Amino acid sequence: MVAFMDIQPITRGHLLVVPRQHAVLLHEVDALSSTQAWQVVTRMAEALRRSGLPCEGVNVFVADGEVAFQDVPHFHVHVIPRFTGDGFSLEFPPGYGQPVGRPELEAVASAIRGATG
User: Fold this and answer.
1) Which residues contact 40 (CB under 8 A, 6 or more apart)?
2) Which in 31, 41, 85, 116 has the greatest CB count within 10 A?
3) What are the residue boundaries of the structural domains of the chain, listed by start?
């Protein structure tokens, strides 16, 4: 496992946690590498908070597939320090925030349960 600075940082201190073993998508990462990655992510988030850099919070982000903004074909986790006024935001699609009915939630949950094997 390696952690290094992102060369196109969203905020100062933005870093990546990357398994040495190649995998493109999240589900391709073996269990040991996945566990190690999340342990390193946790350590790096804590280090960012202690670093003296502006860091009031931390976003942890995985882009799993091209449509999800993955532009490097190797699994990695972004660890992004956040602070008030940092300029980074998430835009939500129209309709976000409107509650979904229970039948729809049940239908989606059923489809996911059926795919877990």
Assistant:
1) 1, 3, 17
2) 41
3) 2-87
